[in-house]
């Protein structure tokens, strides 16, 4: 009769594990203890892959130092490679939010890798005298160095994907900047008429804002290359050989194809989470900028009959259960909400970092969870905004031009000739009577018609801005 369960023991007792499961007793205890988000860490496949890369680098190092046999090393490395290739991710079941500073996640990885390795060797799962989750897979490691190193690797690689999404959004705005380069409109400060600009300039500004943060994100990304792998429990490197730290970084570089380097102060690196705070701050900055842009898009498209109505957002779905024909700016709205979540995550990460005590910050699980959620939400939101909104935006050039010609602030161009006081009087008269600035200047015989046509060309007000 086929066995349905195996018995695993730890110092707290024993538990039945379903025989086809690759995780073990510590993973099962964590699953039972932490039912917080109702998801497992397998929601973050990049993180699982990063954990496997760390374990592979450590196994290669321990073999080189003579602490693992060839058979043990080969089996562990093959197990890690299969996880890196995308297999067994369903076995990573612990909740991402957990007590214990990430120990449950680390042991989930150790147990799964050990049992895959045992299966590779033709041994039954749970035969830990041959390959043990702690003694062999976790050799020369602590959760306190393996776990944060995997978080940093994950973030480093995901940032490239976030930048790709930002580039899609940036390029969509650049495309509209070119399309709208000859459409004159009224610029506004404090929601009041200011001076003319082109709609193309407005959209180019959005592209530039995003491009700036792509570059700043690259600088922040470099901070993630400093890791504390080899620090073990508190940074002193207890239970490692003297050569271990340098060797494990070399193997980590080889496994990841990235130039990670050892922190200059391993005790500091083990307790300090400020790099994650910095990365979160970059995410918050990006979210704030894109949300501000979405606010502008909703305002510029407002109406269509009783709002600004300078642009049209592509209609995506009916907007009301009671008002026929109403269409809402749903794509900017959803991106606004993603931004709110990212900003809130930054507060959580700041508090978690500040609440670390002495030689370890035990709140790295919530830090990692919030960072992973934020980066994945932003990636999807920004690509959706580009594809389902920005690329489909159209302009209402007549509305834009009428706003320019009817604005009293056209008189701004006359300041150098009339002076501020006289120009203000003309603007005030235009606002009082509803007449155009053009007509008032002619009535007061301040200029000839020919002079006015030259002076009040709106294009003359934007010529100093870089051409699109």
TrEMBL record:
InterPro entries: ApsA, Aspartate_Ammonia-Lyase, Fumarase/histidase_N, Fumarase_C_C, Fumarate_lyase_CS, Fumarate_lyase_fam, Fumarate_lyase_N, L-Aspartase-like. It catalyses: L-aspartate = fumarate + NH4(+). One of its GO terms (molecular function) is aspartate ammonia-lyase activity. GO terms for cellular component: cytosol. Transmembrane segments: none annotated. Residues 410-463 form the Fumarase C C-terminal domain. This is Aspartate ammonia-lyase.
């Amino acid at each position: 009769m086929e066995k349905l369960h195996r018995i695993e023991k730890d110092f707290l007792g024993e538990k039945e594990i379903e025989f086809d499961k690759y995780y073990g007793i510590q993973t099962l205890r964590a699953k039972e203890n932490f039912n917080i988000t109702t998801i497992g860490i397998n929601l973050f496949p990049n993180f699982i892959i990063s954990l496997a890369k760390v374990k592979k680098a450590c196994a290669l190092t321990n073999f080189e130092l003579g602490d693992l046999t060839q058979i043990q090393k080969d089996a562990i490395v093959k197990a890690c490679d299969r996880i890196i290739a995308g297999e067994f991710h369903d076995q990573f079941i612990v909740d991402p939010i957990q007590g214990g500073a990430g120990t449950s996640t680390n042991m989930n990885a150790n147990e799964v890798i050990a049992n895959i390795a045992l299966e590779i060797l033709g041994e039954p799962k749970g035969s830990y005298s041959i390959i043990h989750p702690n003694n062999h897979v976790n050799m020369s490691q602590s959760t306190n160095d393996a776990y944060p190193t995997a978080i940093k690797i994950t973030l480093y690689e995901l940032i490239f994907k976030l930048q790709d999404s930002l580039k899609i959004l940036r390029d969509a705005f650049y495309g509209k900047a070119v399309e709208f380069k000859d459409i004159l409109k009224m610029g506004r400060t404090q929601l009041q008429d200011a001076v003319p600009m082109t709609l193309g300039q407005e959209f180019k500004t959005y592209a530039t804002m995003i491009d700036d943060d792509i570059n700043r994100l690259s600088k922040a990304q470099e901070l993630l290359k400093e890791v504390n792998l080899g620090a073990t429990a508190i940074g002193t490197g207890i239970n490692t050989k003297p050569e271990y730290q340098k060797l494990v970084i070399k193997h980590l570089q080889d496994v990841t194809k990235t130039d990670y380097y050892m922190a200059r102060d391993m005790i500091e690196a083990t307790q300090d989470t400020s790099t994650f705070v910095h990365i979160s701050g970059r995410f918050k900055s990006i979210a704030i900028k894109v949300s501000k842009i979405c606010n502008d898009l909703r305002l510029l498209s407002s109406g269509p009959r009783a709002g600004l109505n300078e642009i049209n957002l592509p209609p995506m779905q009916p907007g009301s259960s009671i008002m026929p024909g109403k269409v809402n700016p749903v794509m900017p709205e959803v991106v606004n909400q993603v931004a709110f979540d990212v900003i809130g995550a930054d507060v959580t990460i700041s508090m978690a970092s500040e609440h670390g005590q002495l030689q370890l910050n035990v709140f790295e699980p919530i830090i990692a969870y919030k960072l992973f959620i934020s980066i994945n939400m932003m990636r999807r939101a920004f690509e959706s905004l580009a594809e389902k909104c920005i690329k489909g935006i159209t302009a209402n050039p007549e509305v834009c031009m009428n706003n320019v010609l009817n604005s009293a602030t056209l008189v701004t161009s006359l300041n150098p000739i009339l002076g501020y006081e006289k120009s203000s009087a003309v603007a005030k008269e235009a606002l009082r009577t509803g007449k155009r600035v053009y007509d008032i200047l002619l009535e007061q015989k301040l200029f000839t018609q020919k002079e006015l046509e030259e002076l009040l060309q709106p294009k003359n007000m934007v010529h100093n801005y870089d051409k699109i």
